[in-house]
Every structure is written in structure tokens, then in C-alpha cells.
Amino acid sequence: MKSSPSKKNHPLKHPDQRVGVFIDVQNMYYSAKNLFGAKVNFGNIVKEATANRKLIRAIAYVVSTESKDEQPFFDALLNLGIETKERPLQIFLGGEKKADWDVGITVDAIRLSPSLDSVVLVSGDGDYVPLVEYLQNQGKQVEVMAFGGTSSGKLREVADDFTDLSADKGKFLIQDRRYPRAIKPR
Question: Which of 6, 15, 54, 59 is the most buried (most CB within 10 A)?
């Protein structure tokens, strides 16, 4: 008979663990904007994700537009030590826009996993559930960081650890003056 394990909320994190951080920027951007009218503090997210372990790679998956208005943001990520992978925004004939990095993040996480002990996925997208399960079957510890209000329940459930970024808004958000919604301090 297989016993059902209790929630795995606090996996072992030790200084010799090799960590890779994979950031779904679009998912995080829209979650922070829609929930809090704010921007994401990616530097603090990577610091928290690393948790005094050995950071092997931190990669932010970003979308570029023809105007290149987002270039200062990309430069800021690089200055924080976060590598960026860029994909152009696709605009279809009917006007629909698509900027999906799910497959790219999945391929990179699998490709880099042999040199990692822990994979930190910064996204609440439930499409990553099969990736999490695959990596766990390969012996990897998989942690998810996202805003609880926009995170897939199944993703939260299968992850070895889930950090709800909404629990510390002052640390993980930057108020955007363009949006009137205020962040209540903790």
C-alpha cells in the first residue's frame, strides 16, 4: 500500500546545492500588474530563489517588440546578473498577439537539469506541471515562485516548494506610478 506523503513544503536547501532559476517574465508581469498594479522586483526574486545556494544560471524569458521600448528593462535584468532570452512578439493577421515561452523554458530546464540540484520555476502557469513532474522523476528538487492569486493550484500542489510572492509585496513588487492601485505595506 502506498502511503500518501504530507505536503512537502520545506525541502532541504543547503549551500552546496546548484540552482537554476527560470523566469517566465510575461506571466509574472501580467500577474503583478493585474493583481497589484505594480511591477516585479526580479532581483529580489532571484536572491530569494537562490537562498544562499550556488546559482548556476538565472534566465529571464522576455518578449521584444518592434519599438524596442523594453530594452531598458532587459538591460536592468542583465545588470542584476539575470541572463535574458528574447523572442519577438508575434502578431497574426487578425491582430491576435502571441508571446509564449513555455516550450523554450521547458527545453532549457531539461537541458540544464543535469548540472542542477534544484530548479526554480518563476511562473504560476499550470502548463508547467508536466515539466515539474519530469524533473522530479529525474531526481531534481523543483521549486515554484509565483503570485498565489494567479497560480495554478495543480502547479502549487506538485512542486516540492511553493513561494507565494504575494505574501511579501514590499520585497517582490515595485509600485508602478502608472497604475493607481496601492500596495499595502506588511
Answer: 59
